[in-house]
Amino acid sequence: MQYQIGIDSGGTHVEAEAWAEDGTLLGTASAGPGNSLLNYEQTLVNLGTVIETLLNQNKVHECQLILAGVAGSQSANNQTAIEAYLLNRFSIPVRIISDADLAMLKGFGYNSGILVIAGTGSIVLGQEGPKRYRIGGWGHLLGDEGGAYDIVKRCYQQMTQELNQQLETGPMTTLILTALNYVSPTEAISDFYQMSRQQIAAQARILAEQGQNNEQFKSVIEVCANQLAQQIQLMRERFLTDKPIKIALTGSVLTHNQLLKHHVEEQVAQKSTVQFVTLEGSNAAGVKNFILEDFK
Prior knowledge:
about 300 residues, alpha/beta, Nucleotidyltransferase, domain 5, 2 domains, five-stranded mixed β-sheet, NAGK-like, ATPase_BadF, ATPase_NBD, ATPase BadF/BadG/BcrA/BcrD type domain-containing protein
């Protein structure tokens, strides 16, 4: 049975799926981080791991294509290099695109719409006919508003503000120490500077689970949601059509943090007529639309 492999290679982990031509899911595989801008060699290793796993589960000669959406590959300008490496290793046609483009394929195929990704980082993409638009996605040092890293960073910043005001038992300080099992603010701040971007981002989900009734945490979420909503509205203004626009939401923050998701949807709906959909699961399934449109 002929099949294609789709890979969603993100900053936290790599997820791969093998899809038969009739739409049957033949297998899945996962590995560690896959951002080629942050760690090129690690990305190659993890891509190779998931591909090898799926090829071992199925017949190698029946794989028609490997499509990987790799985080950071567009900014790092290394898509061609990754393609060459994987082609040389597996002797199967390979196409490397950005992880955002892969999510766009899953959400819309080649139809018009707006894609909002808020995972470790964030980006807003638009597609209207042959035109492509981008807002955000400039990385955790310059942007990524509303992503998991941004949320955690803002929480720690709020804690430092409480400490500046000599509020060592302030609401945000208390939340961080309790939820993340720190003994003191000093220990938490020291740990923040030693953790990787992925480790910091992973704290967002813990804080969200335990901060539902914390007003300071809610304020941080509202600020992040407002910034995402502003980017979505700015994207909407670039579209020429007056018809309702489909907006697809994806990424760990938008799928797991209902407070932020609700606030984003509410803010955007006040200014535009839109239809929100949430993309569940891995975006590796975008390979199905890519094959349908480009190879048949």
